[in-house]
Amino acid sequence: MDEMLFCRNTENGEMTLPLAIGRDENGRPLWLDLAAAPNILLAGCTKQGKSVAMNAMIASLMLLKGQEEEEFVFIDPKMAELAVWAGAAGSRYAGGEFESYAELDRLTVELDSRLSGLAEDSRRKYPKIVVFVDEYADLMDYGSKKTAAFKNIVGMSKSGNAVGIHMVISTNRVSGKVITKEIKENFPMRMGFRMLDKRDSIVVLDRTGAERLDGNGDMLLLRGPDVERVQGTFLSTDECMAIKVKEENNIDYDSVVTPEKKMKYLEKLQKLW
Known about the structure:
Elements: E1 8-9, E2 13-14, E3 18-23, E4 29-33, E5 40-43, H1 50-65, E6 71-76, E7 91-95, H2 97-120, E8 129-133, H3 145-159, E9 165-171, H4 181-186, E10 189-192, H5 198-205, E11 218-223, E12 226-232, H6 237-243, H7 253-256, H8 259-268
Parallel strand pairs: 5-9, 5-10, 6-7, 6-8, 8-9
Antiparallel strand pairs: 1-2, 3-4, 3-12, 10-11, 11-12
Helix pairs in contact: 2-3
């Protein structure tokens, strides 16, 4: 099976940043291009599939684009769900409160530098940086730091696409104080997992429905004006560990992630809960 079958885009050719999502209501594999999104928000109750969905996205990018083509940044305030990717080649892992804030500050400096360079030469291209933030609401809990963290996230999501920076963020706290107007404007693609009530569904998706989902990766996907129901893919922690290539000296990615291994795990990304 040709690996590019997993990330085709019938309208625009090959996807730039292909993400494995799951299967649509007709049972067809669903992939999305993060570069076109250009940012994604995942929200819903705890243990409903957000972290599994995020890990599947990371795995698909690593398998199809390689850990040498893009820079991955994992911001994990709780040092929990994204810890599996710590030490991956071509990535930075920021675990805990202090490191998470420092990484957001560093990324903002990088964003400003890239925007300045683009202003000098509109043809300038930058390598992609893909930023994953788990439970970003936790970064809005710590006094004066929360204002800077929120500003950094909004700033990157608003301007990052122009210079190759894309974000995927998640939260289990669904409220207007966390999912603000600015967040919704800059994260137009949103995934709503099962929620407590219809009010929470409206906050995330601008409509009801997520309160009636079944859990275990069952989601409503908002892209453009439409919402579609999707069953998320499932990838275990052990499978994530098998996909990750650790940071080592003189690493040769292709010698570690062989075509056979790549196809094996791309096929696993079609597996449902």
